[in-house]
Write a structure and sequence with these properties.
This protein has 2 domains: about 60 residues; about 190 residues, f41 fragment of flagellin, N-terminal domain, CATH 1.20.1330.10. It is about 75% helix and about 5% strand. The strands form 2 sheets. A two-stranded antiparallel ribbon has the order 1-2. Strands 3-4 form a two-stranded antiparallel sheet. It starts with 8 loop residues before the first helix and ends with a helix.
Length: about 280
């Protein structure tokens, strides 16, 4: 091979290979420090695109699960209030049944009716004061929008919590003593019909809310499971195989050392030209 001082080809070759090895070593170190196989679009453009799409789906699913949980909380608040109303109505049945028997004095009938009216007032108070997150529960529609981040993967689950005003008005129109306390037994027996109607309405409402809560719980569970599966899929694409990366880092470290040694030798070869001039 001809000796030349204009271009040291072996040194250029060694320098080029050393640059390639150093870039690969730096990439391995970045993967080790980040734990991710893909740290830029140039690492795996297709994989990055797929992973970003999956992560968007995960974000939508996680929020959907939270939406369902919030809606469940509102419906359970309504159900708890209705449960208390059921207890008050059951007490009203007891009072009406007691007042339906003859033999009570006028004062006793009046006392029973006073308690009954207090119960009706409390039912009305529950209907107007019960709220969730600052929003009245009764007379509202509770809904949860769920999505998996795709066009066809959206569902809106909702339930209307009936206003209690009609039920309260019907109960207020009844009296366990009637217009004439002497006919209290007859009035009380008539009141039982209104009370039982109210119990049936409350029971039906609780059944509707319970069914919607079950639907929301199922939707939340599905969203959570799907989110977990997508996180796993995304991780399989982007996560670095640490054992492989460590092996590559060791290899590139050795290649860097041999490359530096080769570059040194190539530069030393150029010095042999000086011996011809001695």
């Amino acid at each position: 091979m001809a000796l030349s001082i204009l271009n040291n080809i072996p040194a250029l070759q060694a320098e080029n290979e050393l640059a390639i090895t150093t870039a690969a070593a730096n990439k391995s170190l970045q993967q080790l420090s980040s734990g991710s196989r893909i740290n830029s679009g140039s690492d795996d453009a297709a994989g990055l695109s797929i992973s970003d799409g999956l992560n968007a789906n995960v974000a939508a699913l996680n929020q959907s699960s939270l939406n369902s949980t919030n809606a469940i909380g509102a419906l359970q608040t309504a159900d708890g209030a209705l449960s208390q109303i059921t207890s008050l109505l059951n007490r009203s049945v007891t009072l009406a049944t007691e007042a339906s028997s003859s033999g009570l004095s006028t004062a006793q009938s009046a006392a029973i009716n006073t308690e009954f009216q207090a119960l009706v007032t409390e039912i009305g108070s529950i209907g107007t004061s019960t709220n969730f997150n600052g929003t009245a529960v009764f007379g509202s529609t509770v809904s949860a929008f769920t999505s998996d981040g795709t066009t066809n993967g959206t569902v809106n689950i909702s339930a209307t919590v009936a206003d209690l005003s009609a039920t309260v008005t019907a109960l207020q129109a009844t009296s366990l003593t009637g217009a004439n306390p002497a006919a209290g037994a007859t009035a009380a027996q008539g009141a039982l019909t209104a009370i039982n109607t109210a119990i049936s309405a409350v029971s039906a409402q609780r059944g509707t809310l319970g069914a919607t809560v079950e639907q929301l719980q199922a939707a939340s569970t599905v969203d959570t499971n799907e989110s977990q599966n997508l996180v796993t899929a995304s991780s399989n694409i982007t996560s670095a195989d640490i054992s492989t990366v460590v092996a590559n880092d060791t290899k590139y470290s050795i290649l860097e050392q041999t490359g530096i040694s080769a570059l040194q030798q190539a530069n030393q070869q150029a010095q042999t030209v000086l011996k011809l001039l001695q």
